[in-house]
Amino acid sequence: MKILFITSNRLGDAVLSTGVLTQLVEHYPNARFTIVCGPYAAGLFRAVPRLERLIMLQKQRLNFHWLSLWSDCVATRWNLIVDLRNSLITRLLFADKRLYRGRHRGQHKVIENARVIQIAQPPAPHIWLDTQAEQEAAHLLPSARPLLALGPAANWPPKQWPVERFVALAQKLTAEDGPLPKASVLVIASESENEIVQPFRQALPAGKCIPIIGHGLLTIAACLKECALYIGNDSGLMHLAAAIHIPVLGLFGPGEKDVYGPWGGHVVHTPESREELLGRLSSPAAVSPNLMGGLDVEKVYQAAGELLEKSNS
Fold this sequence. Notes:
Elements: E1 2-6, H1 11-16, H2 18-27, E2 32-37, E3 51-56, H3 64-73, E4 80-83, E5 98-100, H4 109-116, H5 131-140, E6 147-151, H6 163-173, E7 184-189, H7 198-203, E8 209-213, H8 217-225, E9 229-233, H9 236-243, E10 248-252, H10 257-260, E11 266-269, H11 274-280, H12 297-312
Parallel strand pairs: 1-2, 1-4, 2-3, 4-5, 6-7, 6-9, 7-8, 9-10, 10-11
Helix pairs in contact: 5-8, 6-12
């Protein structure tokens, strides 16, 4: 049996689609999978069981990438196509059955994706790890535990909590009287975000900051698996942490927490509503693109402590 699974170019949406993929893997134990996604998300799927082919959909002018996909897939008779992009091109492939994602505004993406395969219980996102990722993580991580993971970057500046507050939060959480005394702090970011690690290196004791910079997604997931807690902005990394099933605290302001909150995780929100924050972007008085300033360290610290207490009970 051959299944074509088409998911998002964006990391967060791709992670949120893995619950559907898990259901397909379990429901069709003899199926071989071809997965289509964007280059940023491709590393997520390396260890998917019975993966036959991974196609990276690299965006081209005039949407020629869809024509390239059709050319790659037209010679195959697909038993099932699950297209979460709802693309026209998959309607021009040979298939016994096709399933497409509709649009249900205001629903969480995991619930929206579950509708595609017509199941009532939304499947939680899931990441398959392999030996390579686990070995790389073991090399990167200190032997001492516990570990606190932070995701201080974001792909849109207005939803990035100020980095100095992340630093202050890390200091409070890992202090002698904090909920994670003497924990090492993993600061996770891409190579282009490397400078965000510097404030942590300067403020934390020597050896306490563990930068995880520019590593593959499965290696990052394997690192996250060993952590007691993840705290980060509304981002794909937040969803990756939730999909590896550790306690997750997502920081939200202008983002859509009801649609993109961490599945199975928790959210702490700015005192201002999303609508109020987005309204500031068009205000003539706006002097900074950042919209997360209303969220103070103490509020996040308290939420983190409650989450840790709950996860340890």
